[in-house]
Amino acid sequence: MRIWETAPLATDNLIEQLEMLGGLVVIQGPVLQLSLLDLHFAFCWVEDLERWVRQRHAESPELSIIFIDASASNNEQAFWQIGSHQLGLEYTPVADADAAFALHRRLVEQEEALAGAGRNVERILISLRMSDSERVLVADYIL
After folding, report:
1. Where are the beta strands (DSSP E) in the chain?
2. Potential cystine with 123: which of 28, 65, 83, 111 (Cβ 3.0-4.6 Å)?
3. Virtual CA dihedral for 47, 51, 56, 58, nearest 10 degrees?
4. Residue of 63, 96, 92, 98 lying closest to 80 (CA atoms)
5. pTM for this one?
6. In angstroms, rounded to a whole number, what is the distance separating the alpha carbons of residues 17 and 31?
7. Could you read off the pLDDT of 74-122 as tens digits, one per residue?
8. 60 beta partners
C-alpha cells in the first residue's frame, strides 16, 4: 500500500519515480540499469513496442512468456489482449511501474518456490509507458 500518490511516469521524472520505488538507477549509454533489492533490470528505449515484443518471442518461441505492460491505454490493452494470443504469450496490463515491479517480484518468487517442479514462466517482458512520449522503456527478464 502506498502512502502517497505519485505523478504519472514521464521522461522528466523517470529517475525520481524509480528511486521513489526504492530503486537504484544507473544510466550507461542507452541502457537504464535498475536495481530493486535483489532484482536487477536493464531497460532500453524502443519506438515500436510491437516489433520489440515480436522479436523477443521469435528469439525463443519455446519459452513461456508473460508481458507486463504498465500504464497502457484502453486501446493499447485491447490490441495486446488479441495480439498476445496470436503470439502465445500472456499479457498482463498493470496501472503503473510500482504494480509492474510488484507483479514481477511475485512471479519470480513463485518460480523460485517451484524450482525443480517445472517452470510456469521462463521469460518476463516489462514495458513502462511514459505519459509524455511515444517511446517505451522495456526490459527482458529471463528466469
Report:
1. 24-28, 31-36, 39-46, 65-70, 90-94, 123-129, 136-142
2. 65
3. -160
4. 92
5. 0.90
6. 17
7. 999 999 999 898 888 999 999 999 999 999 999 998 887 776 566 678 8
8. none
